[in-house]
Amino acid sequence: MGSRYGGLKQMDPVGPTGETLLDYSVFDAIRSGFQRIVFVIRRDFEEEFREKVGRRFEERIDVDYVFQQLNDLPEGFSVPEGRAKPWGTGHAIWCARTAVDSPFLAINADDFYGRGAISDVGTFLAAQQVHSTAYCMAGYRLDTTLSENGPVARGVCEIQTDGLLSGIREVTKIERGVDGIVSGGDRFLGSERVSLNCWGFTPAIFPGLEALFSRFLSDHAEEEKSEFYIPDAVFGLITSGHASVQVLPVESRWFGVTYREDRPSVVEALARLTAKGEYPVSLWG
Question: Hey, how many other C-beta atoms are within 10 angstroms of the C-beta on 256?
Fold first, then answer.
């Protein structure tokens, strides 16, 4: 919903010929071998999204839509009175359970992940069976994911020597200060790997998500602003021994538009990539 941005970031044109950040993700996914897209959206802007976004992909790749609805809950649960806020990113992925039957990449619609990250996740997924619980995550350097226009929240990864994720620490109010990269009393080198919700999963994650979401609802459903975040869910699966997550240390440049003031730098960065020939001037010709 873009509360800090002030509008629907997913539909904001930032490319040379009006492309959105989502256009770049879809373009990179197609040339990395992905064959299907499932958009998880709110039903109240379905028509506008289909017309302004979805239609231009439908002749290029198989497209489907699912809806993140408050009342899409595990059996035995109902929406608490007064709840209006969506249930979070973990719930959004779980909502796609009826539409996804093969290993899949899960990303945000308002981030630029880069071809390298999407391709690396695709290569990992190509080696997985449908029922595998070996997942992956693109890990970006913290110092390449900051905003010049305000603090950001990042999931800072704890990684074992074998490259497997052992934990994610959600850190808020990270910014570049006179003494380096800081958040409150914490200081960072900048080389730490962070999660930006670029995940590789298989359909085996859906039962695990449902169990964890049910536990979340039992404990937090009455809290109006509580959310079921995918990093927390993944950490729950890891600690219970139901999944492993390989951190792929990608060097792709990430761009995001957390704040409205971030937009000009994103437009400029995409123009530079286009000038270097990494993307055509018009993605869809």
Answer: 20
Helices and strands of the chain, counted as H and E runs: 7, 12
Asked if residues 136 and 157 have their Cβ atoms less than 8 Å apart, the reply is: no
CA distance 42 to 47: 10
Domain count, the chain: 1
Q: Encode pLDDT of 190-209 as tens digits.
A: 999 999 999 999 999 999 99
Q: Is residue 161 part of a domain?
A: yes
CA distance 132 to 79: 32
Domain around 149: 9-275
Q: Quote the tokens at residue 9.
A: 């970031």
Q: Report the predicted TM-score, pTM, of the whole model to 2 decimal places.
A: 0.92
Which SS3 state, helix, strand or coil, does residue 277 take? coil
Q: Please check whether residue 2 lies inside any domain of the structure.
A: no
Structure tokens at 221: 């459903």
C-beta of residue 72 within 8 angstroms of C-beta of residue 210: no
Nearest alpha-carbon partner for 255 in 136, 115, 105? 115
Contact (Cβ atoms closer than 8 angstroms) between residue 234 and residue 168: yes
pLDDT tier at 7 (50, 70, 90 boundaries)? low
3-state secondary structure 111-147: EECCHHHHHHHHHHHHCCCCCCCEEEEEEEEHHHCCC
CATH value at residue 187? 3.90.550.10
